[in-house]
Specification:
The N and C termini lie far apart (about 115 Å). The chain is mainly alpha-helical. Helices cover about 40% and strands about 10% of the residues. The chain is built from seven helices and three strands.
Length: about 180
């Protein structure tokens, strides 16, 4: 016969979980990029130029190749394709642009909200145009155009006043028959 070990009332315990420390990356996360990485050019996305390249087209070598209206329209439409996820901005930039002889692009806009949206992408847009068209004199100027609206009467009193302006005898008719229009 074999000798068996005496049974004990102690149950085997599961292994104890040891808390692990999380490592924080020093290079910035997906939501908050590192300023150092962005300035050094490490944060560029696919097909996007780095900050030093953009700066070159703002302050670097002066290029002044002439481009035609057709060449400009092709590049402008190419840039608008990048804005598929921002339809309001795309619609604003789809308005006709006037190109001056000194390569200043005049874009008419309707309000200050559109101006703010354009100012957010303006450095990227201008540097991209300068690089693609090889002309560092390109500037984008936005002009808020005030559109005059026609006055439209809405209430009965306003409608009557407009009709009396066109035909003053209506006031006499209203008075003679004692007509009331919700006054």
């Amino acid at each position: 016969m074999q000798a068996t070990a005496p049974k004990t009332d102690v149950e085997p315990q599961p292994p104890v979980k040891v808390p692990t420390k999380r490592r924080i990356k020093r290079h910035g996360s997906g939501y908050t990029p590192s300023i150092k990485d962005a300035l050094s050019g490490k944060m560029t996305e696919e097909g996007e130029e780095d900050a030093t390249e953009k700066l070159k087209y703002y302050t670097g070598e002066q290029l002044e190749e002439h481009f035609t209206d057709e060449q400009f329209k092709v590049k402008w439409q190419e840039y608008l394709l990048k804005l598929e996820d921002r339809p309001n901005l795309k619609a604003t930039l789809s308005r006709p642009i006037k190109i001056n002889k000194d390569y200043k692009l005049n874009l008419p806009i309707d309000n200050s909200v559109q101006l703010e949206e354009i100012n957010k992408i303006k450095p990227d847009l201008v540097s991209w145009l300068r690089r693609e068209l090889r002309n560092t004199r390109i500037e984008l100027i936005t002009d808020i155009v005030v559109q005059e609206t026609e006055y439209k009467p809405y209430s009965e009193t306003e409608k009557l006043a407009e009709m009396v302006k066109k035909n003053p005898t209506l006031a006499l008719l209203k008075q003679r028959f004692n007509l009331d229009f919700g006054e």
